[in-house]
Design a protein that fits this description.
Elements: H1 2-14, E1 36-42, H2 45-56, E2 61-63, E3 70-76, E4 81-88, E5 93-101, H3 105-120, E6 132-137, E7 144-149, E8 156-157, E9 165-170, E10 176-181, E11 189-194, E12 200-204, E13 210-215, E14 221-226, E15 233-238, E16 245-246, E17 254-259, E18 265-270, E19 275-280, E20 287-288, E21 297-302, E22 309-316, E23 319-326, E24 331-334, E25 341-347, E26 353-359, E27 364-370, E28 376-378, E29 387-393
Helix pairs in contact: 2-3
Length: about 400
């Protein structure tokens, strides 16, 4: 029981916001010269709905019926292929036509929509529509791990343990998920699931708590938080949970380690506060990097495309919002503008948008957030039930 209490206290470090009783919906922002007016459509009802949903989530675009700069059209090109035609303006000058394929027509559409973004956004942004999610859902009354596409299609329940599961994270190749669960011993241990055959292995199960596991960008190492030697400390192992090496040494609680894009550094939350600290992945003295935005900064996620950008959860008054920290200046800024709690950010591959958990006293849903404008769009349907702790994988 002491071990369980210690772990729950650690979890509260990053997951105990006070919530207002509010509905979660789209947070609209006024279109300005930073957005591109587009008309999007599909030749079938499925493709039309997907086009409106996908481009409606993207902060670089606003969908209009007239006065558009680009007319983006999607049509089936086979049972699992989609053609995207991009025309310029009302006159319909051809810009591009391309066919993409996938294992399903839905998957092919997302690839085609990513092509359209790459050819029209004007800022060099990657498309993010083909990304996949792993997340925690309790639609069964138990906290289980699921996977889905970015818009909660192709949902698969991965665990059926009827036990607490937490913080699922992808391997860089998208073939494994590493996470914390109470299912085997009744205490928090770290497990790994192979998504090719759904086999599960115990990654680490030491005395104390074992949590917060995250693969390095190369997939060759894993950072995690272990408390077997006293206070929760940051440790690093190889990809099989062997060669575990302690990297921090202080009498303060740590949580949520995350790797830099090149794998040379780690960022994590540490008390008091908590605040955010960076250190070499090989160990050494942590350097505080969050100063000027909030007395509470936690749950960091380091952008893979913008090496100086870190998304994190920050306290604003009695609620929580998403912030973005610029490591070159060590200046953080609130980027979400919702009337509900925003927590648990995970970057999408364009380095501009992210997914996060929007939470009230009665519900939690996964949303896409444009960090440039504050536009927020729910992607997990209310009919699914509570969803949270989403982690992004993209090719």
């Amino acid at each position: 029981m002491q071990r369980l209490t210690q772990f729950l206290a650690l979890a509260l470090l990053v997951a105990s916001p006070l919530c207002a009783q509010r509905d979660i919906g789209t947070v609209e922002v006024e279109a300005d010269n930073r957005t591109i007016p587009v008309r999007v459509s599909g030749s079938t009802q499925e493709l039309n709905n997907l086009a409106l949903k996908a481009f409606g989530s993207h902060g670089r675009y606003h969908i209009v019926a007239s006065g558009f700069i680009y007319d983006i059209k999607f049509a089936p090109a086979g049972s699992s292929a989609v053609r995207v035609d991009i025309l310029r303006g009302f006159g319909g000058e051809p810009v591009s036509s391309e066919v993409t394929s996938g294992s399903t027509i839905r998957e092919a559409f997302f690839a085609a929509a990513d092509v359209a973004v790459a050819k029209t956004n004007g800022l060099g942004l990657r498309g993010y529509f083909s990304s996949r999610l792993t997340f925690i859902g309790d639609r069964t009354g138990h906290e289980e791990i699921y996977t889905s596409d970015l818009f909660f299609g192709d949902v698969k329940q991965i665990t059926h343990d009827r036990a607490i599961a937490m913080t699922p994270r992808w391997s860089p190749d998208g073939e494994e998920i590493i996470y914390t669960s109470f299912f085997r011993s009744g205490f928090p241990d770290i497990f790994k699931i192979n998504l090719n055959n759904y086999s599960r292995t115990t990654f680490v199960s030491f005395k104390g708590t074992n949590s917060g596991a995250r693969f390095s960008p190369s997939g060759g190492q894993v950072a995690m938080v272990l408390s077997g030697e006293g206070e929760p400390e940051i440790y690093v192992s190889n990809a099989e949970g062997r060669g575990v090496s302690r990297k921090t040494h202080s009498d303060t609680t740590k949580a949520s380690p995350c790797w830099s894009p090149d794998g040379s550094r780690l960022i994590f939350a540490m008390q008091p506060g908590p605040q955010l600290y960076v250190m070499s992945a090989s160990g050494g003295s942590p350097h505080r990097v969050s100063f000027d935005t909030s007395s509470y900064c936690a749950e960091p996620d380091w952008s893979r495309t913008s090496p100086n950008k870190v998304a994190y959860t920050m306290k604003v008054g009695r609620n929580y919002q998403i912030g973005v920290l610029d490591l070159s200046t060590e200046h953080g800024e609130q980027v979400s503008k919702a009337p509900f709690d925003g927590i648990e950010p995970s970057w999408l591959p364009d380095g501009r948008h992210l997914v996060y958990t929007a939470r009230t006293a009665s519900s939690s849903v996964v949303c896409i957030l444009d960090t440039e404008t504050g536009k927020s769009v729910p992607v997990s349907p209310i009919s699914f039930g509570p969803a949270r702790q989403a982690s992004v994988w993209s090719r």
